[in-house]
């Protein structure tokens, strides 16, 4: 007999993603890494955090890269790293918050992955990023104002993702299960152009 806890994993194994990865997009603090790891377990796919991969190949932290080379060069490196990641076997990818803003990167992710926007409200984002002082874009006198501007700039682009799931203060398993349900709907819908 199958336990209740095994049902989401069992259903996740049955989803036909047509050889695609699952790319989580959204602002810093939306939960792309923590929820992504749980989702990867459910889908029985490897997980890769693009920022961690960038740090591995560059041997510098994201903050150091921003300080040394600026955002433009960081985004170019990010695009190259994501290009290599999606060309490899299917996996769950936690992207950097700005990755989806690059038109070429966005096109590549839309072609090679099912894109999932983890949408979150500003209070949740600020609560989460306040715990980690290593966010280069928030090193400003008014971090909440910066976050609000990022939301205004990025949310219309994130809305182009294949799937939107609300990130909130809930167990990561709950959000991951909601993504599995949405992926199942996506796979059955025939919208995989």
Automatic annotation (TrEMBL):
Molecular functions (GO terms)? ATP binding; magnesium ion binding; shikimate kinase activity
Cofactor, how bound (note): Binds 1 Mg(2+) ion per subunit.
Q: Tell me the superkingdom of the source.
A: Bacteria
Enumerate the catalysed reactions. shikimate + ATP = 3-phosphoshikimate + ADP + H(+)
Q: Which UniProt keywords apply?
A: Amino-acid biosynthesis, Aromatic amino acid biosynthesis, ATP-binding, Cytoplasm, Kinase, Magnesium, Metal-binding, Nucleotide-binding, Transferase
This protein's pathway: Metabolic intermediate biosynthesis; chorismate biosynthesis; chorismate from D-erythrose 4-phosphate and phosphoenolpyruvate: step 5/7
Q: Where does substrate bind?
A: 51, 75, 97, 154
Q: Does the keyword Transmembrane apply?
A: no
Q: State where Mg(2+) binds.
A: 33
Instruction: Please list the cofactors this protein needs.
Output: Mg(2+)
Q: Which GO terms describe its biological process?
A: amino acid biosynthetic process; aromatic amino acid family biosynthetic process; chorismate biosynthetic process
Main localisation, per the record?
cytoplasm
Q: Where in the cell is it found?
A: Cytoplasm
A Pfam family cross-referenced in the UniProt record is SKI
- What's any one GO cellular component for it? cytosol
Q: What is its EC number?
A: 2.7.1.71
For this protein, the record's Gene3D superfamilies field holds: P-loop containing nucleotide triphosphate hydrolases
Annotated ATP binding lies at: 29-34, 135
Q: Does the keyword Signal apply?
A: no
Q: Which HAMAP family match?
A: Shikimate_kinase
Record text on subunit structure and interactions: Monomer.
Similarity annotation: Belongs to the shikimate kinase family.
- Give the protein's function: Catalyzes the specific phosphorylation of the 3-hydroxyl group of shikimic acid using ATP as a cosubstrate.
NCBIfam families linked = PRK13946.1
Q: What is this protein called?
A: Shikimate kinase
- The organism of origin for this protein: Aureimonas frigidaquae
């Amino acid at each position: 007999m199958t336990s209740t806890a095994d049902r989401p994993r069992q259903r996740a194994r049955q989803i036909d993603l047509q050889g695609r990865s699952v790319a989580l997009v959204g602002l810093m603090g939306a939960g792309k890494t923590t929820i992504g790891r749980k989702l990867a377990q459910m889908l029985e796919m490897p997980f890769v955090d693009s920022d961690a991969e960038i740090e591995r190949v560059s041997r510098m932290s994201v903050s150091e890269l921003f300080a040394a080379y600026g955002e433009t060069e960081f985004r170019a490196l990010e695009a190259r790293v994501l290009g290599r990641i999606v060309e490899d076997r299917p996996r769950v990818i936690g992207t950097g918050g700005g990755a989806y803003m690059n038109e070429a990167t966005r096109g590549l992710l839309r072609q090679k992955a099912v894109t999932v926007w983890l949408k979150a409200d500003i209070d949740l984002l600020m609560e989460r990023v306040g715990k980690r002082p290593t966010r280069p874009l928030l090193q400003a006198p008014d971090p909440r104002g910066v976050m609000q501007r990022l939301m205004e700039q990025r949310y219309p682009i994130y809305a182009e993702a294949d799937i939107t799931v609300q990130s909130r203060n809930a167990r990561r398993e709950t959000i991951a299960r909601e993504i599995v349900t949405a992926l199942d709907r996506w796979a059955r819908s025939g919208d995989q152009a």
